[in-house]
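Hi F.,

I've been meaning to write this up properly since the lab meeting, where we talked about keeping a consistent format for the predictions we share between groups. The idea is simple: the sequence comes first, exactly as it goes in, then the structure tokens exactly as they come out, then a line or two of notes. No screenshots and no reformatting. I'm using this chain as the first example so we have something concrete to point to.
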Amino acid sequence: MAMHIDMVNSHYSRKVYIKMIVTFLNKKTKAETFQKEYFRIFSNEAKEIPEKDYEILNTLCYAVEAYCPDPHLRDGDDIDEIELKKSAQLH
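Output, unedited:
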């Protein structure tokens, strides 16, 4: 199931992130899709996110950035889908 959250009028909403994370954790979204959508939304909203939420979402952003789907391309700093899901569960 492809996920695309339309953010034409970008205004921060915690619910958008919760929905995106839950959809990923429930295996309704592929990791690559989650990665793409997370970057798209976070980069558009970063300036609008309250500091407390920003710290959490930015930490998850580091995990999203470290995700590499191809095990042959992964290096020591990269993570796989299992690790990405663990990071998403913590947030």
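Notes:
Helices lie at 14-25, 31-45, 51-66, 81-90.
The first helix runs from residue 14 to 25.

If this format works for you, I'll send the rest the same way.

G.
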